[in-house]
Amino acid sequence: MRKSVIKLAVVATVGLGTSFGAIPAKTEAESISKLKEEQNKIHEQRSDLNSNINQANDKITNLQGQQTSVKSELKRLDLAISDATTKIDEKQAKIEDTKAQIAELQEETKVLKDRIKKRNVLLKDRARSYQDTGGMVNYLDVLMGSTSFSDFIDRANAVATIMQADQDILKQHEADKNELEEKQSQVEKDLASLKKMLADLETMNKQLTAQKAEKDKLLGSLESQEHEAHEGMLDLKEQEEILAAQEISIQKTIKQEQERQAREAAAAAAAAAAKKKAAASSNSGSSSNSSSNSSSSSAAAPQVSSGSFTRPAPGVVTSGYGGRWGSFHWGVDIAQSGNNVPIVAAADGVVSVAHYSSSYGNVVYISHSINGQVYTTVYAHMSGYQVSPGQTVSKGQRIGTMGNTGDSHGQHLHFELYKGPWAYHSAINPIGIVPI
Ligand SMILES: [Zn+2]
């Protein structure tokens, strides 16, 4: 008996017979406990998010640690490379010196060869003179032709002196040749060893440079990973903020629901009392009810529907909910050209978030309680908004202006609907619930 009265009252307040928002009515206790359940869910999601944020922080710290060690490796490689480069310069200078030495020796060789050539001429001349006079045999003739013993001695001495001089020339000749050969082979050995050292250093330098390039690449990848982790954490933090804000707006919604139910109970009691007093009166629950047309927006605003939900913006649907271009579109896009295109609240509710996000641009989140079922609506890419968190808004009330802010290409409203509180990637298709 009592239950049916309550049901009637709930049906009367929650929209008069629209195909949209055909949500089954619930008892007061049920609706409040459902709201509280949602609030607990948000709380759980927040603690999950916070542990994700901590993980992201750990990851960033770890990546930074890796970067530090790669940087010290790079420093070591830089020092090694500069050391190798110095040594290469030194070896190259030495090679130049040695080449100069070789050039000098070549000059000396030329001089010596000239000298040897001259000596050869001298020796040949002498040999020719021996030949002319009969060569070695003539020495004997010279000795035999001596007129006395002292003459013989004189002649023998002269012959010995001439022979000794020839011997000395030949010895000097030999020594010069040997010395030069030795010097040349030593210098050539030096040059070969310098060239080998230079080649080794150049190989080492090449290896070090390759190692450095690899480390540079690793550092770049670590840096971009850290950048990504940072961005991921910013996303998580934004999600956490939204959840925290929702906790507050749902708390407010619960309070409003409790107040509404108290009013209903009072009205039901009054009606029952009236029914008792006036025995047979005509009783029709014509509650003209909250059409709440505080939507003082421009003429372009869509007409407010009588159901729980109304269309959030004028214009054409340019993109529906679902897969598109290989990704998933979590809302419905409504586009309308012109300035000052109004965006309105899709249902009565409490604003939980009104901020700027890099992806959504100027965006507003509203928590609704429709028969104890929490819904959340999101209005993205607005050029501006005129509500603030905690503010109660009514269906059709202007909340902002259509725009092209955030990750958007062309002026449109990106509208999302959630059954329950907002949670990452859990929006549902609004078609069939919201009259779009
Ligand atoms: Zn969209």
TrEMBL record:
Domain Peptidoglycan hydrolase PcsB coiled-coil: 110-183
GO molecular function: metalloendopeptidase activity
Residues annotated as transmembrane: none
Keyword Zinc: no
Spans annotated as Disordered: 278-313
Gene3D superfamilies, per the entry: 6.10.250.3150, Glucose Permease (Domain IIA)
Family matches, as InterPro entries: Cell_wall_metabolism_enzyme (IPR050570), Dup_hybrid_motif (IPR011055), M23ase_b-sheet_dom (IPR016047), PcsB_CC (IPR057309)
Alphabetical keyword list: Coiled coil, Signal
Residue ranges, compositional bias (Low complexity): 278-301
Coiled coil: 32-115, 163-275
Keyword Lyase included in the entry's annotation: no
Residue ranges of every copy of the M23ase beta-sheet core domain listed in the record: 328-420
Protein name: Peptidase M23
